[in-house]
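Reminder to self: tokens first, then the designed residues, so the page reads top to bottom the way the pipeline ran.
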């Protein structure tokens, strides 16, 4: 069994089973990758990939069992590479952060500024995705660090660091009848059209569960990934908004009023790295800057 064969499996998986794309990443030909896969399957005496015609569409049970071990091998290889890079070029390289739009837009700008002042030669890449994808990107080595609220903490492959706690805010136009209230109960909130996050983002599942547990069915007239979009439609009178507290910028939304709400509980955003691999020293410095932000 050759390392090149395992590398082919790994890159095929992380590139969505697209051999052409994996070949481009590995600077080789699609036929060469096919030969590596065939040789590995011949050695294992079973197929690793599910096929539809000539297309690869997924992993067989053997492939599923094999993948975590392959990922661990390449995690160790990345750790060794990072040790070498830190020794020879400690101030330069690339740091890829996978995070949600909310973190990238409202929480990280000051951290990125401080980081770039400290490490001007490091190329910082921000990849925006949903929380589940973020977790998978870190696990598969497509990102060095993941930052999100959901999907990170309860994952055996990830080592998580507490970042900060947050809750939601209700937002309404300044002239809205709820604008002067300090406490809005759930039935009252559910009586208005709701504009909030898309499923899987920024505590939306908890919002839905809270209403459901109270026997309420709110009318969610618009769901979006971005608090800026939510705020725009609240300003237009489409409904009452529910957004993360860090996403409300009073100077930016002068036509809106934010009202604290505790019905949906408190949330924690986490910083995650792969548990069996070490990020570069400037990656650790990035994490430290994040942790100091709310200390």
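Designed residues (295 positions):
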């Amino acid at each position: 069994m050759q390392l090149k064969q395992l590398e082919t499996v790994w890159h095929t998986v992380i590139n969505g089973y697209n051999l052409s794309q994996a070949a481009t990443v590995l600077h080789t030909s699609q036929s060469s990758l096919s030969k590596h896969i065939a040789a590995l399957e011949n050695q294992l005496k079973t197929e690793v990939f599910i096929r539809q015609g000539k297309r690869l569409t997924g992993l067989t049970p053997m492939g599923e069992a094999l993948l975590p071990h392959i990922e661990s091998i390449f995690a160790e290889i990345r750790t060794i590479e990072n040790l070498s890079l830190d020794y020879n070029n400690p101030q330069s390289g690339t740091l890829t952060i996978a995070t949600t739009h909310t973190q990238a837009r409202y929480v990280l700008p000051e951290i990125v500024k401080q980081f770039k002042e400290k490490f001007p030669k490091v190329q910082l890449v921000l990849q925006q995705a949903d929380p589940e994808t973020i977790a998978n990107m870190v696990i598969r080595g497509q990102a060095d660090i993941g930052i999100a609220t959901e999907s990170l903490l309860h994952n055996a492959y990830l080592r998580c660091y507490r970042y900060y706690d947050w809750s939601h805010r209700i937002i309404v136009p300044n002239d809205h009848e709820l604008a002067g209230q300090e406490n809005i109960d759930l039935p009252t909130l559910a009586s208005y059209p709701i504009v909030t996050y898309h499923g899987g983002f920024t505590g939306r599942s908890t919002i839905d569960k809270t209403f459901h547990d109270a026997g309420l069915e709110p009318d969610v007239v618009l769901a979006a990934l971005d608090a800026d979009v939510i705020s725009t439609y609240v300003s237009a009178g489409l409904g009452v908004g529910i957004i993360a507290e860090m996403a409300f910028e009073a100077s930016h939304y002068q036509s809106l009023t934010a009202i604290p709400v505790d019905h949906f509980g408190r949330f924690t955003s986490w910083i995650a790295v792969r548990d069996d691999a070490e990020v570069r020293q400037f990656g650790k410095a990035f994490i430290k800057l994040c942790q100091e932000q709310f200390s």
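The mean pLDDT is 91.
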